[in-house]
Amino acid sequence: xxxxxxxxxxxxxxxxxxxxxxxxxxxxxxxxxxxxxxxxxxxxxxxxxxxxxxxxxxxxxxxxxxxxxxxxxxxxxxxxxxxxxxxxxxxxxxxxxxxxxxxxxxxxxxxxxxxxxxxxxxxxxxxxxxxxxxxxxxxxxxxxxxxxxxxxxxxxxxxxxxxxxxxxxxxxxxxxxxxxxxxxxxxxxxxxxxxxxxxxxxxxxxxxxxxxxxxxxxxxxxxxxxxxxxxxxxxxxxxxxxxxxxxxxxxxxxxxxxxxxxxxxxxxxxxxxxxxxxxxxxxxxxxxxxxxxxxxxxxxxxxxxxxxxxxxxxxxxxxxxxxxxxxxxxx
Length: 331
What we know:
With about 325 residues, the protein is mainly β. The chain folds into 4 domains: about 10-40, no CATH class; about 60-130, Immunoglobulins (Immunoglobulin-like); about 135-220, no CATH class; about 235-330, no CATH class. It is about 0% helix and about 55% strand. The protein is built from no helices and 28 strands. The protein has strands at about 5-15, 20, 35-45, 60, 65-70, 80-85, 85-90, 95-100, 105, 110-115, 125-130, 130-135, 135-140, 145-155, 155-165, 170-175, 185-190, 195-200, 205-210, 215-220, 235-240, 240-250, 255-260, 265-270, 285, 295-300, 305-310, 315-320. The strands form 8 sheets. Strands 7-6-10-11 form a 4-stranded antiparallel β-sheet, with no helix packed on it. The protein is globular, with a radius of gyration of 30 Å. Residues about 1-10 and about 15-35 have low confidence and may be disordered.
């Protein structure tokens, strides 16, 4: 027998002396009515218990995307994807494509299963991509190997870098600032070997970058600008300075946009001509060896590659002939 619950209720009705049934409830003040009482029993749905815990996620990271899959959890109807302890998304299936990451950054992921009643199980074992973490980063800089991260607290949000210089270790903290949105910040090594920490701040339409040159911290916040859609937004090290780039426009006019912190200030909202964003599961931002920026993806029937390049001033674009572009992500 399956354990469960029942619900019992009692109704009291009256029958008069002439044999007519009355639907009134029992009136204790009347003397000409007899009581007829009924007990009603009905099943109550058993509240669902906790779902099982999902299996350990598998991760494939490339460029500005991280592909996650995990073994399904028993009794789960949805999964919460956590990145670096922050709720990133809720999905129905046992997989998620994170397109809100920056190249060469490391991220930690855990998955939490939920059932239809909202009950959760313990999280999955966490997995971590390789590279430099979005919060604490190990950086190969021109200053020497560095360990940088967020410091202070909510009332005094700061940054700190410790660097092994040829003359020994140094450590330096930035003035009070703004850590930015938890899901959208990155450490970068600039082309000149200095270190930057970039993120969105305020209402989300301004970028702020801090730069550490081994002695001094400097900072600059951009004007209000188009910082692109959150999917495929990337923070990149370029020849001109740290950049925030992403997709812009809409389905009828698919564009790209970059914002760069140069030595003379922010260059904002530099748009590419309308083109094709490419397949959502297969596109990435890259920093080229000459310090320019490229955005590459598959287009058309999937057998052609399209890359756009931004040199700090001008956008150029090139599409390949039809080629074998290899297998997709395979777990």
